[in-house]
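note to self — DONT lose this again. spent like an hour looking for the file last time. sequence + predicted structure for the chain T wanted, 608 res
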Amino acid sequence: MADGTARGVARDAALRIGARAAGSLMLGGTLLILAKAMTVDDFGRFILVYTVGMAVSLVAGLGMPMRALRVNALDDPQAAAARLFVVHTVATLAVAALAAAGIAAAAVVGFGFSTVVLAGAVFAYSDAVQNYAQAHLAGLGAHGGASALGMVQRAVPLTAVAAALAWHVAVENALLIAFLTTAVLGVASPVRSAVAGRRRGRVVEPGAKRTGQPAGGERGRGFWLLSISGVLAQLQVPAFALFASATAVGWFALATRVTGPLTLFAAAASTVLIPELARRIGDPPEFDRIFRRYLGATGIYLAVVVLGAIPGAWLVIEVVGEKYAPARWMLAGLVVAAGLSSVSQSVSSAFLARGRPGRVTGAIVAGGSLTLVLLVLCAYTGAVDLVWAAPVVGQATVLAILLDGLRDRPLTARLAARADAVALAVAAVAAGTVLAVGAFSSPAGGTAAAGSSPVDVLTDPPAVRVLLVGDSMVEGSAVGGRGDANWTALVQSRLARHSPAACPVLLRVSGRGGSGFATPGKRGTTFPAEVDRLMTPDVSVLVLMAGNNDAAAARRSPAQYRALVERTVGAARAVAPGVSAVIVSPLRLPGVNRPPGAAASRGLLQEA
């Protein structure tokens, strides 16, 4: 009987995994096509709006999708699922209506209307209602229906994008129609079972258990807090965007979305495992047996994912083009993080089936918060080449906390003791492997710049690389623009749009407010120091964007200042003999008084 049950669970899990795998391939294909068809900036905005929308939907969903998966632990599963469906539909629809009104109001008052932004918002709403609908059906045992719905969810956008490219229609419009279609399907799919549940005439509070334990708001709040903790993952792109350039955000957005489907193996299996484990809360040996098999399967999956991280990242760059080459290490790190997340999801299933989301919430909050902090630090310091480490460290933290929580359970204490050591060892080896390869492939003379990657020097593409060093005009200011409006971001966007794929032009940017050739900036750096740190043999053009920060130094010691400028260019040519050097002198800004010595600085730069 136990073997037959295990075979049934394995069969349902294989169905869900197969459907999710096909859906993941379709989603990945859709995103790759969009990344290639859109500019880097537009793709970044699309993903940014989607991630923010998903974060909002997780809060608005009140934890209903996860509660729907374990309705088998309640007195009347069908009636409970019907009630959850009504609450989730009303809550998410209300938030979607508010978002639509906000977008319309922004267009009316002159902020403009962007189909890309609207498509990203509708994408988020569609995924929110689809995620609930599939959990609703899976919780009631309709795994075939849930799998079919998941396939349609990903097939419709892929078909729409392919048709738009074939018929030369704007992909944004095709996406909008496709996501509206999948949203309607997501809302409509659970209606039949929900109506049947309501007709049963006895709706049991969703928090109640078969044991007769009364329902409590505490249990429902626990699942809501768990769903809110998922917001941290959705905030990774927005957090990185706080200080990173629009182009770097586009690279990171591609990495997060292309690698996201790798977590669906565990997510798909969990939609079968949680309902089955919920049925077996009163049968500890069978509960433990199913759980151990699933944990072993995800451990094997982690090993496969780690081995394929670097080759997979290389393959993605080959598909989307050299303009995304700096995202190669981001991709590799996020692949490893996805493998770790899969193991974490398998451990979470045991806690969630028992109605104990607290440990899972704590682990996700700890690991997710750490990831966000590391991402912000990488963006702020310009260490974009180290972004890959943030998700790996965060997911390893989540897994360690979850495995430690298993020690409270006698049936899995021995398993936890082994899995704890093995999983953490695998995580350490994975992080060490990526770090070691990155260290060996780093260019001589220092780490890579923001917007660059150590792997750049290993490739041999016919790309033109430009190193741009400057002050606040480059970093971001009221004059030079901030974020997406900064002139360097606009230049990179235009280069990505107009330069041929066979010969892309890539900017490697270092902007440090207050700095100059002789004057340390706010971060204690100078132009010569940044050139020494960032110059590599593959740079074709060096642009030194001077400002008025050196006015005092040029007036005080003109000979030393000119010699310093010449040594900076000479140091660059020592690394890349064929590099062309372009020096931009201080700009004359209307209505702004130039400091004493600015004219002397300008003249010395012209002479140099």
